[in-house]
């Protein structure tokens, strides 16, 4: 540098020193630093202050979204839809910082409250309106449907004034009883007795005096169509051929028909003394009288006697007709002390023997009167005989018996006797309990009569049950009882059917056993994640219910493949079903929040998040204009790169890192370092603008995408980056060196 120009004075030394100090001051300060403030004092009213790794940060409370300091706005959980948030058959209602669910009409919450939040497993189940009697009115039958019910008319009733099925609050339909009205008339017949005209009612017809008809077609019933069945009874005048016949019918046909009818009567209750059995139709339409004569048979019963203690025999008078006869044997038995009727019975015996005999099932040690007569149409003079049966002899076996068990539920009763003895009555009392069910109780009692030496009784027992069976001999002078213990095995046949999944984490099934019987189910749940080899979720528990259609909501982890095994303890075979839970929002990013005014933005620390709610796919750094922070949606998929046309107005993605590229230890990212992260360019911030830096964690699995966001920094009146500030600092140092050199020359 040359000397100062002539005429110009040299700069004074004080001025040179002042310039040197200013240059040094500029080189030292460089730029404004980050504000140092009490973070907790600046937290929003809907935020809490937390300390992590020695640094304090403001985090919005549950149900709010924002940076935690200047803004925490309510998160509308219901925007995803009531079915997604609350489950089926619900409506979702947002509140500041939360939400609640209400079941739709026709459904109720399983926690029996009007409102609920589904994180405790509560869901909406159908209300069975049909439990209220009389809902459909007289004659109506209620049928439950999903969320409502409908009415049908029951048997014997038809709908009136409206459709079927119907709803009593919507339709004017009522059920009226079916009325078939007056029964149809039958020529030459009349109705016997009183009758009603409702569904199923019957009227019986009979021919008028002087007419005859067949035994069929005498009944007409009221049908579900409200009409009577057409009676088929055809009453005929015996003076004329059957209906439809006329003089054109050959006389030999009429003669044959009449002959058969007369012979039938003769064979049943009469005998013929001779004569013609035919009658002919004359030209005057009259029947010629027959010369046949019939004599009524009177059966004589003689020589009635008793043999083998309980058998009777007799003889009948010889007759000209040897036909089959029906005998009526009437038995009346009386005990000696006290005198009362203990056995009365009527037995029919059909035989063509002239020396009939029958053995009767009589009580021992009882006085009997036996009366024998013939059944109509034959007539007889009854014959009677009285006798006493022998006393029962228990000395043969003393009433002693034993019991053996086979085929699990069958008992063999063995009497200590060498021969078949009189019938004895055994009383069975059966009680079944299940040790794992306090309220389970199965009790049965019945009597069993047998005279055999060895009898078998098979019991209808429930599976997987401990039974006590007491057998007592009744009527013995000394009581004899035997007790046996039986434990039934679990059922081989599967008792669980129609298993299904609803509301993602709930299961329902049906029990094929008898309704009202308490059952215990063993549930074994195993969960695994392909993206977390070390993850394992295993739960085993029991549930007891009497319902034939149990429902159970399980506490499962999101983003997990589960295997659920359900086994009724009364069955030997479990049922296994697989289900997959959807992912939920990943954990909120752990960030150190910064607010920068006019200075450079420090390097931001990115910490790897835990995959507790599903596999994490990537991490994104977003630059959004500060004015759009309140309207920013974390789930938005429309984020663009810096070079897109809308980047200035809507913000852009500055960096994207795949989850596998993020180390376990924290890594640093400098916003605006002009590098590419994935397909996104990390552009420098424009000087003088206000920005919001957001860290977003993205989780994707099974075509479901979930995100969580946290505000990393707020930048107001942005300036040069640290790299740019370093360049400015080096330039300032160069100026200071030049000024110092000039000051040296001046000296």
TrEMBL record:
<dbReference type="InterPro" id="IPR009030">
    <property type="entry name" value="Growth_fac_rcpt_cys_sf"/>
</dbReference>
<dbReference type="GO" id="GO:0016020">
    <property type="term" value="C:membrane"/>
</dbReference>
<dbReference type="InterPro" id="IPR018097">
    <property type="entry name" value="EGF_Ca-bd_CS"/>
</dbReference>
<keyword id="KW-0768">Sushi</keyword>
<feature type="domain" description="EGF-like">
    <location>
        <begin position="74"/>
        <end position="113"/>
    </location>
</feature>
<dbReference type="InterPro" id="IPR009017">
    <property type="entry name" value="GFP"/>
</dbReference>
<dbReference type="GO" id="GO:0005509">
    <property type="term" value="F:calcium ion binding"/>
</dbReference>
<keyword id="KW-0677">Repeat</keyword>
<dbReference type="InterPro" id="IPR000436">
    <property type="entry name" value="Sushi_SCR_CCP_dom"/>
</dbReference>
<dbReference type="Pfam" id="PF23144">
    <property type="entry name" value="Fn3_PTPRU"/>
</dbReference>
<keyword id="KW-0812">Transmembrane</keyword>
<keyword id="KW-0472">Membrane</keyword>
<dbReference type="InterPro" id="IPR001881">
    <property type="entry name" value="EGF-like_Ca-bd_dom"/>
</dbReference>
<keyword id="KW-0732">Signal</keyword>
<feature type="domain" description="EGF-like">
    <location>
        <begin position="36"/>
        <end position="73"/>
    </location>
</feature>
<feature type="domain" description="EGF-like">
    <location>
        <begin position="126"/>
        <end position="163"/>
    </location>
</feature>
<keyword id="KW-0325">Glycoprotein</keyword>
<protein>
    <submittedName>
        <fullName>Sushi domain containing 1</fullName>
    </submittedName>
</protein>
<dbReference type="InterPro" id="IPR057598">
    <property type="entry name" value="Fn3_PTPRU"/>
</dbReference>
<dbReference type="Pfam" id="PF07645">
    <property type="entry name" value="EGF_CA"/>
</dbReference>
<feature type="transmembrane region" description="Helical">
    <location>
        <begin position="725"/>
        <end position="746"/>
    </location>
</feature>
<keyword id="KW-0245">EGF-like domain</keyword>
<dbReference type="InterPro" id="IPR000742">
    <property type="entry name" value="EGF"/>
</dbReference>
<dbReference type="InterPro" id="IPR049883">
    <property type="entry name" value="NOTCH1_EGF-like"/>
</dbReference>
<dbReference type="InterPro" id="IPR051622">
    <property type="entry name" value="R-tyr_protein_phosphatases"/>
</dbReference>
<feature type="domain" description="Sushi">
    <location>
        <begin position="178"/>
        <end position="237"/>
    </location>
</feature>
<dbReference type="InterPro" id="IPR000152">
    <property type="entry name" value="EGF-type_Asp/Asn_hydroxyl_site"/>
</dbReference>
<keyword id="KW-1133">Transmembrane helix</keyword>
<keyword id="KW-1015">Disulfide bond</keyword>
<feature type="signal peptide">
    <location>
        <begin position="1"/>
        <end position="30"/>
    </location>
</feature>
<dbReference type="InterPro" id="IPR035976">
    <property type="entry name" value="Sushi/SCR/CCP_sf"/>
</dbReference>
């Amino acid at each position: 540098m040359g000397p100062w120009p002539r005429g110009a004075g040299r700069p004074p030394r004080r001025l040179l020193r002042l310039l040197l100090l200013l240059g040094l001051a500029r080189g030292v300060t460089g730029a404004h630093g980050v504000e140092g403030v009490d973070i907790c004092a600046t937290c929003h009213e809907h935020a809490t202050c937390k300390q992590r790794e020695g640094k304090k940060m403001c985090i919005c409370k549950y149900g709010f979204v924002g940076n935690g300091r200047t803004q925490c706005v309510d998160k509308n959980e219901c925007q995803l839809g009531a079915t997604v948030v609350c489950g089926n058959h619900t409506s979702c209602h947002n509140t500041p910082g939360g939400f609640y669910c209400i079941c739709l009409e026709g459904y109720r919450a399983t926690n029996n409250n009007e409102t609920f939040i589904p994180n405790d497993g509560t869901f909406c189940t159908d209300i069975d309106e049909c439990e209220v009697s009389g809902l459909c009115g007289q004659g109506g039958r209620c049928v439950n449907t999903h969320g409502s019910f409908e009415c049908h008319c029951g048997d014997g009733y038809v709908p009136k004034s409206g459709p079927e099925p119907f709803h009593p609050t919507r339709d004017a339909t009522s059920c009226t009883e079916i009325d078939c009205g007056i029964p149809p008339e039958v020529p030459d017949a009349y109705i016997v007795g009183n009758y009603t005209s409702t569904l199923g009612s019957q009227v019986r017809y009979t021919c008028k005096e002087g007419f005859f008809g067949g035994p069929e077609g005498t009944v007409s019933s009221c049908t579900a169509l409200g009409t009577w069945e057409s009676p088929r009874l055809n009453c005929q005048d015996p003076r004329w051929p059957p209906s439809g016949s006329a003089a054109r019918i050959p006389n030999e046909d009429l003669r044959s028909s009449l002959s058969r009818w007369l012979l039938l009567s003769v064979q049943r209750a009469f005998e013929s003394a001779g004569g013609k059995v035919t009658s002919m139709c004359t030209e005057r339409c009259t029947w010629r009288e027959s010369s046949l004569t019939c004599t009524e048979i009177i059966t004589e019963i003689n020589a009635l006697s008793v043999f083998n203690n309980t058998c009777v025999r007799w003889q009948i008078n010889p007759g000209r007709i040897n036909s089959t006869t029906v005998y009526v044997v009437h038995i009346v038995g009386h005990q000696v002390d006290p005198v009362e009727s203990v056995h009365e019975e009527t037995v029919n015996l059909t035989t063509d023997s002239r020396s009939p005999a029958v053995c009767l099932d009589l009580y021992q040690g009882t006085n009997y009167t036996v009366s024998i007569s013939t059944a109509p149409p034959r007539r007889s003079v009854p014959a009677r005989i009285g006798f006493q049966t022998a006393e029962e002899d228990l000395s043969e076996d003393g009433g002693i018996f034993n019991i053996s068990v086979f085929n699990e539920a069958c008992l063999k009763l063995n009497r200590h006797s060498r021969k078949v003895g009189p019938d004895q009555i055994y009383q069975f009392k059966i009680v079944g309990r299940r040790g794992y069910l306090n309220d389970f109780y199965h009790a049965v009692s019945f009597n069993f009569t047998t005279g055999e030496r060895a009898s078998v009784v098979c019991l209808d027992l429930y599976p997987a049950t401990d039974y006590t069976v007491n057998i007592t001999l009744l009527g013995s002078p000394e009581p004899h009882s035997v007790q046996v213990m039986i434990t039934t095995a679990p059922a081989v046949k599967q008792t669980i059917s129609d298993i299904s999944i609803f509301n993602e984490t709930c299961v329902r099934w049906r029990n094929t056993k008898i309704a009202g019987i308490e059952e215990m189910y063993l549930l074994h749940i195993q969960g695994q994640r392909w993206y977390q080899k070390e993850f394992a979720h295993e739960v085993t528990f029991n549930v007891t219910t009497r319902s034939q259609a149990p429902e159970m909501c399980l506490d499962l982890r999101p983003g997990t493949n589960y295997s659920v095994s359900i086994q009724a303890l009364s069955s030997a075979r479990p049922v296994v079903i697989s289900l997959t839970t959807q992912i939920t929002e990943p954990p909120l990013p752990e960030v150190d929040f910064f607010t920068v005014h006019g200075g450079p933005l420090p390097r931001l620390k990115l910490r790897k998040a835990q995959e507790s709610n599903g596999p994490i796919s990537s991490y994104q750094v977003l630059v959004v204009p500060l004015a759009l922070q309140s309207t920013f949606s974390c789930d938005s998929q429309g984020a663009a790169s810096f070079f897109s046309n809308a980047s200035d107005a809507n913000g852009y993605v500055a960096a994207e890192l795949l989850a596998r590229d993020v180390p376990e230890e924290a890594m640093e990212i400098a916003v605006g370092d002009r590098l590419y992260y994935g397909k996104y360019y990390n552009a420098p911030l424009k000087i003088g603008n206000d920005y919001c830096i957001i860290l977003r964690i993205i989780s994707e699995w099974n075509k479901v995408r979930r995100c969580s966001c946290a505000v990393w920094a707020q930048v107001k009146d942005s300036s040069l980056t640290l790299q740019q500030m370093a360049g400015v600092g080096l330039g300032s140092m160069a100026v200071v060196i030049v000024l110092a050199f000039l000051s040296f020359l001046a000296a």
